[in-house]
Structures are given as structure tokens and as C-alpha cells.
Design brief:
mainly alpha, 11 helices, globular, single chain
Amino acid sequence: MTEAFAAVRNMKANRNDIAKWMNVLTQGGTREGMYRALVLDSTYAGLENYPNPLNDALINFSIEYYTTYVGRSIKKESLESINFYTLKRLTTERTLEVIDELKKNKEDLHKWYAVFSGDLAKRYPEIWQNKVRKETNKRFHLNWAKQAPSQHLKSEVIIKLHKTLNYLMR
């Protein structure tokens, strides 16, 4: 929970934040629900309203990411006019839509996750501290996905995507 908060907001959670979100989760809230609440509150809206243009690395990654993992094309010009936090929210929302569609055939979802995770681990090894996330073997990630509950898989995608975007914004 604290890792997802830090990746989404690009800042550490304080004790009040941790208590609030742990309470939500212990009362049956989902990880995806927590994510959506984080990006739809007034704090995140404030981050989206702050001028924070994208750099070339983010624009290039986003164009490639949308084509490869979301199945949509996005134009460089449209990316040049949006805020960093807006990009993070929109990209994650589109990705969660893809995951929900792929859940209709679990095998497709697991394969998508394996390619996504293996590619990010290979391309950006310096980001990952966790041994599982560092793993570049796609079969490893495929096997992990087959064992993971769907909310854990979504949580991993959210964390990996946000950490990658945060890294590229530096």
C-alpha cells in the first residue's frame, strides 16, 4: 500500500495516509479502488493542474507503450500538451481497461502481464529493488501471474507503470 501510494503520488505517504488506506483495505476495499481514489481526489487534481510538461523520454515511452500494451496509437503532439500526472492517470486507466478485457481469457492476461513485466525489467533494471520485479524471464512472470489474485496483478501493474513513468520524468 505504501509503495503504491509513493509510486502514484511520487511522494512518501505520511502516517495519516497509511492509516486511511489500510483502513480501506481492511474493510474490503480493493487495490484498484484505492488507486482510483488516490488519482481522483483533490490532492491529485492539484498535481494535475500544476504545469509539469513531459520530457522526450516520457513522450517516446508513452507512444511505444500505448501501441504495444494498450493497442492504441497516441500522437506526440497530444502528449506535448498534457501534464505528467495526467499522463500517469490516463495511461494507468487505459491499462486497467485492457486488463479487464483480458480477464475474459486468463491465459491472454497472464501472457500480457509476462511480456509487460519482463520488458520493463529488462529495459529499466535500475528501477527495481524487488527480486521478483528485477526478473527479466517472461516465463517467470507468466508463472507468477497464474498464481496471483487479480487485484495483486493489477497492483503490480500500477506500481510498475508509475515507477517507470516517475523514473523517466527525472
